[in-house]
User: What shape does this take?
Amino acid sequence: MQMFADHSFFAWLIVMTIPAFILGVFEKPIKYYGMFASLVFLWLALGHNTIALTYLIVFCLLEYTIIQIYLQLRLGGNRSKVLYWLFLLLSIAPLATYKVLALVGNPWHIFGFLGISYMTFKVAQMIIEIYDGIIKKVSPFEYAYLLLFFPTITSGPIDRSRRFSKDLNRKIPRSEYLELAGTGLYKILLGMVYKTVIASVLYFLMKQYGMEKDMTGVLIYYYTYGFYLFFDFAGYSLMAVGTGYLFGIKVPDNFNRPFISRDINDFWNRWHITLSHWLRDYVFSRVTMSLMRTGLRKRRLTIASIAFMTNMLLMGFWHGLTSYYILYGLYHGVLLTLFEIIRTRSGLYRKYSKEKWFIIIEWALTLHLVLFGFFIFSGRLNALMHWKAW
Assistant: This one.
C-alpha cells in the first residue's frame, strides 16, 4: 500500500496505463501488455530484494504445481475429501509458514514478499472450485496474470479466477472500453483524494492529538483511527479498481459506504467486501452445510453461531497471529452471533426494526461497535492494557 502513496509511483502508473488505454481504444487485447506491466512493477518493487523475489517465484511455481496435480487427480474421478483437505492445506502452507515465523521476526525471510496473503486466497479458491467440479482447466498464463496483476497484488481487492478469466478473454467494444476507462479514471482520482488528502489529515490528527494515554487522547484515537483506516484502505482499493478498469479488468469493488451500516451484518456486506464475501462463500456457507448434516441440523441458531465464530476467527488469524488480530476476529464473531440471536429471537426487534427512530439508534450503536473493533485491531487497546497493568 505504501508504494501508492509515493509520488514517483503515481507518475509510473500514468505512464504504464497509456499503452493499455491505446490498446483498449483500438479494441486490441490488453492482457499481454498487462502481464508485462505487472512484471515491470514487480521488478521495481522487489528487484532490490533478491530473497523476496526468489520466494515469490518459488511460491508461484509451487502453488501452480499443487493446483495442476490436484486438478489431474480430480479430473480422474478422485473425490476423496482427505485428498481435498491435503491439497487445500498445502496451498495455504506457505502463508501459514510466513505467519508463524512472523512471530519471531521471520529471520530467514521465508515467503516474505508482498501480496502473499491475497495470492493465497486466489489459489485456495481454485483448489476449492476444482473439488466442486467447477474448474476443469487452469491456464498457466491466466494463473500467473491473476496472481501477479499489479493493481491488486499488494492489498487486493481479492478477485476470483473464473470472473477474472472472463474479463481477460473478452473483446471489449471501443464504446464500452471508453466508458470503463472513464469510470476507472474517476475511481483513481477519488482514491487519490481519499488516501493522500483525507487519510493524511486524519492520520495527522490521530498522531498529533490521539497518542496520549489520558481519556481525551484515547477518544480522539478511537474516533480518528477507524475513519483513517477506511480512507487509507478504500483509497488504495479505489485506485486498484480504477487501474484494473484501464487494463480491461473490472476488478470488484471493496467498499460500499460502510459507516452507514444499520447493523453488523450490513457492515460486513459493505466493508472489505471481497474478503468478507470470500469468507462467506468458502467458509461460512460450507461450515453451515457441514453442520446441517450432523445432529445439530435442527438447531439453526447454534449452527449459525458456530459458523460466524469460525468465519471471523479465521479472518482474525489471516490478518496475523498477534493477540489483537485474533481478538478482533473473535469480537466480530461475537457481534454477528449476538445480532443473529436478537434478529431471530427478539420480539422487540421485529416490532420496531422498521421504525425510523429505531434505525437511527441501531446505526449509531453499530458505528460505535465497529469503531471499537478498529480500536482493538489497531493494537491500541492492547497497549493501553499493558500500560495500566505496568
Remarks:
- The radius of gyration is 22 Å.
- The CA atoms of residues 8 and 239 lie 15 Å apart.
